[in-house]
Queue: 3 jobs
Job 1
Amino acid sequence: MPASTHASVERVSLLSLLRHPRYRPLARRLLVAVVAGVVVGFLLLSWRAGVTAAVLAAIADVVVRARSHSTVPAWRRASVAERRTEAQLKGLERRGYRTLHARAIPDSEAQIDHLVVGPTGVYAVDSEKWDKRLPVRAMSHRKLFLGPFSQKARLDEALWEAERASQLIGEALGREIVIIPSLAIYGPAVPWRVLNVRGVDVFDGGHVRKWITKRERSLTDAEIERIYEIAERVLPARYPEPSAQDTSARPSRNTQRVSSER
């Protein structure tokens, strides 16, 4: 009897499909619905109530997942605060300032939201969106609070980021370079213009441009370009721009909603 010319077809079971990574959310949703249906049906001794509970549980899972998972690619995500600061910094370009956004500190999870290099110096700006219902206050230039919550860890992080970036750029440049750290706060009222707390300048996010341009000129155009080129090299982008091939496969930037916040 001649051998069959048809390749054997492997049967795919429902269980194997649910184990596939692509269908794991569906499997979890099914489990949530079944558990909810069984529990409610058992407690109320009604299969109709159980079915209703299962449907409602599945819907709730869909809503929770949609709110907690962003479909926007990581390289495009930016917080509301970061976008507001970026919009202000664009206005400095014609005045000789260069800016790098979302730059990672190598060998760490830290990130400088905006590194600005210009005539008045080099600046590390971290944009913060805080709860506007809570007051911002400081004590003796050493402590910063949002309501009852100490922001010491956030200040220390901003200071360390700037110091580490200074070290990396200075080593490549061949001389010491000072980077001024800052927190640009959006949301609550900040009861001062600029206040240095634990070595970090803290101010209302709407004052970013004034904070940068108020100082005297300290860098030449050649120095600005050199520092910018080194910073671009030693501080990699946290979310690298995609290649042209990847971009063509993605929807237009204008068709995507940016919804995540820091």
Job 2
Amino acid sequence: MKFLHRPIRRRWLAALALASTLAPSVTWAQPDYPSRPIRLLVGYSAGGGVDGAARLLANQLSQQLGQPVVVENRAGATGQIAADAVAKAAPDGYTLLVGESALMIARALQPAQSVDPLTAFTPVAGLFVAPLVIISSGDFPARTPAELVRELKKNPGKLSYATSGVGTVHHMGFEMLKQETNTFALHVPYRGASQIVPDVISGQVQLGVVSVTAAAAQAKTGRVRALALMSRAPVAGAENIRPLADAVPGFNVEPRLYMLAPAGTPAAITARLSAAIKTALEQPETARGALAQGLPISFLNPQQAQQAMKEEGTHWLRVVRERKMTPEGR
């Protein structure tokens, strides 16, 4: 019996030896992540708040990962063009999205026409919050949040406001203001924030909703007036801008920025990216850049980012349903 089993045993030992010989070469053939440039898609035009945040992070992230991180702008459809491209990309960590709260708004407003951020992506990290400011030209009658509300009440249907697109937090935040104060102003959507300030200055539109950086920088020239901060918390470098909650108690609207990967991205890649992002956000250069852009750093790990997205999704769905909002406002 032993003799009969020897050929089988020899074949088994030979196969085992061959496997052990091949295993190191198979492992060696798998490149360490990342081994080539990473694409970072942004759903808005260059020069806006999300684009600035992405470029600030990309510079530091390249150093942490040892590979170029290249920002690509895919503007349009309130970020949905870029979101769709990333959702359909290979889940290999080489195509990522800097997404923001508008993704959750789109899910609430137009679920059939939008990418569902809660199922289409693997959250990698929370990055920044992006405070928003309502601005006017320098000769607009209002100077405070209370005076802004007064002007809206005095001029129903006569004022217009510009945002970076339908369904953005900028748009929905102002629509919430209209409903809270029972006022009306015409929404004028723009493709990006860079065109809003000149048109507010020229009087093409009376009001605009822009990033705190754009508002603070233009307010120094005197051509633009920063009327009200949409979030409650003060922002470093813009402490003189009063919150809208001064006139509308409890009002608080503030976008959050996330790093997202396609659904199904391996946990090891997500963890590698998240750790690199955390380190990048901790660098002094990042802190200085974030302060200059009016972007408070707010890192969240993958699990925290996923929870924050779920909470935002629930919040905006409730806002849309309770206030009977539509993509066009009211």
Job 3
Amino acid sequence: MHLTSSSGSITPRSRHLLRQTALAVGCAALFALLAGLVTSGWGPLARFDRGWVDHLHSYARDRTAWTASVQTLSDIGGTITVRTVLGIAAVWLWLIGARVLAVWAVAQTLIGWGALWVLKLSFDRRRPAFPDPVSHAGGPAYPSGHAMASAITFAALVGLCWSQLRRGGRIAACAAAASAVLSIGWTRTALGVHWPSDVLGGWLAAGVVLGGVTVAVELWRPGALARDIRRVNWRTRPRVQRIVVSPARPAPGDPAFDEAPDRPDGAVGRGPA
């Protein structure tokens, strides 16, 4: 999910709105289909959920060190952690003057949190139960909060960085974000605290929030997200360019120091400004 075109120019508003609307509507339709299968106890899905959870639980029960490492990864990618990361990004955006973009980031976090609990309480699905559990989690199972929060956070962070990255950087950022989201979702099933369909439901719910919040902000302040992206670029790119391409300063006594032209501000011996 990105907020500008691949060339760095502003995406036409109608195209941007259509893309985000398609994301929200498409994910909502798939979420509703999955929720219907979950609540109806559809046999193939129930067998798939139970088979995966039973297999992973058996593996985790007999390998204490492995289970501890999975639990650590799950804790690192917990809902509080990832929401805090996006909150820090929102504070930084606010401080540099990208206020609408900061509101967008905060809205992703807060609306995602609120939607999660509305959905959990609405479906009230039981978590997997074992006589010898390797981990514990409270609250209803569907959808997974870890899966939903991590998908929202990492997709939002990629969107914030998109216009500052070249093609290789974008591929790397998307791959890293996808790996993190998949890993966090997988840990919840591996620890036996969520069904696979809970994790899939969390990812689909995240798509609804990401697209829906973006459309709402675009309708509220047309073009403001793109303007704030340009502000972020302006605040970050010049510093990088000065560090990378600035010529080395000649030392006094070096012939280059005496031959270097004066700067417009009156300084001498440092080359062109």
